[in-house]
Amino acid sequence: MFDIPLLLVAAFVAGALNSVAGGGSFLTLPALVFTGVPSVVANATGTVALLPGYVAGAWGFREDTQAPPGLSMRRLVVLSLLGGAAGAGLLLITPDTLFRRVVPWLLLLATALFAFGPRLRGLATGHAASPLKAAAGVLGVAAYGGYFNGGLGILLLALFGLLGQTSLNAMNGLKNVVSALLTAIAVIIYAAGGVVQWPQALMMMVAATAGGYIGARAARRIPAPWMRAGIVATGLIMTAIFFYYP
Q1: N- to C-terminal Cα distance for the chain?
Q2: For residue range 60-82, what is the model confidence (pLDDT) as tens digits?
Q3: Theoretical Cys-Cys bridge with 139: which of 63, 83, 151, 200, CB 3.0 to 4.6 Å?
Q4: Which of 47-61, 158-172, 180-194, 219-233 is predicted least confidently?
Q5: How far apart are CA 130 and CA 190, in angstroms?
Q6: Is the model's pTM score more than 0.90?
Q7: Which three-class secondary structure state does DSSP give residue 126?
């Protein structure tokens, strides 16, 4: 009787977090696992639930979005789809028992990426890369996102900084475009592989969309350092729980 409220609250808060800073996967994946959903299915279902937020974010930054140095938008789209498909395919062939052992480490990595994200972006900004390295970077990060969504936004922002992107709005726009593309193709593959629990996914999708809108409006009143600290704390707590209960 508590499963539905837990999933709705987790999706709502996750949508709010993703709209302002990221880290929504820290809540959707554990909530689904705690309600008895197998880890691989929970990862896929949570990714489906958060897809509308990426699409809305991409649309919101549509005037600012531009391709990074060394890549055209067409090539960026192709690489995002290929990488997302590869990561999703890898998830489908990963046994649930193995994925449960990997999840704590992925959560820890995602938490570290989020915690040190500003420093990573600072180190990365302004250093243009060759077209080949740019393509390899996008393909690799997209594959990570298709396999495990946590920390994806931080990786993408750092990558675009490495490619020489300097406009934060353009970087955020690209982040949402790539996230939406790789997540969309991953969702198709998850659905074809039968690893999505659609009742939970659709219910959480509505809650996450509402949370994204309300979170974006409320974020203006919450100091950014407090928001980041709360997300990092959540990530660490969830990581500790998954290490303790593998």
Answers
A1: 24
A2: 777 878 888 888 899 999 999 99
A3: 83
A4: 219-233
A5: 33
A6: no
A7: coil
Cα–Cα distance measured from residue 125 to residue 137, given in angstroms and rounded to the nearest whole number: 15
Which amino acid belongs to residue 136? A
Contact 41, 197 (CB under 8 A): yes
Work out the average pLDDT over 179-203. Answer: 93
DSSP per residue over 41-71, as a string?
HHHHHHHHHHHHHHHHHHHHTTTT--PPTT-
* Chain-centre distance for alpha carbon 188: 16
The rounded distance, in Å, linking the Cα atoms of 232 and 116 is 10
The DSSP code for 106 is: H
Note whether 230 and 22 are within 8 A (CB): no
Torsion angle (degrees, nearest 10) of CA 144, 84, 219, 241? -40
DSSP H/E element including 5: helix 3-20
Distance of CA 38 to the CA centre of its chain: 19
Q: 82, 234, 209: which is closest to 145 by C-alpha?
A: 82
Q: Is the Cβ–Cβ distance between 157 and 175 less than 8 Å?
A: yes
Cβ atoms within 10 Å, residue 97 = 11
pLDDT tens by residue, 107-162: 888 788 777 766 765 665 555 567 888 899 899 999 999 998 877 877 787 788 77
pLDDT, mean over the chain: 83
Query: Alpha helices of 193-223 — where are they, by DSSP H?
Result: 198-218
Whether 164 contacts 128, CB under 8 Å:
yes
- Which three-class secondary structure state does DSSP give residue 57? helix
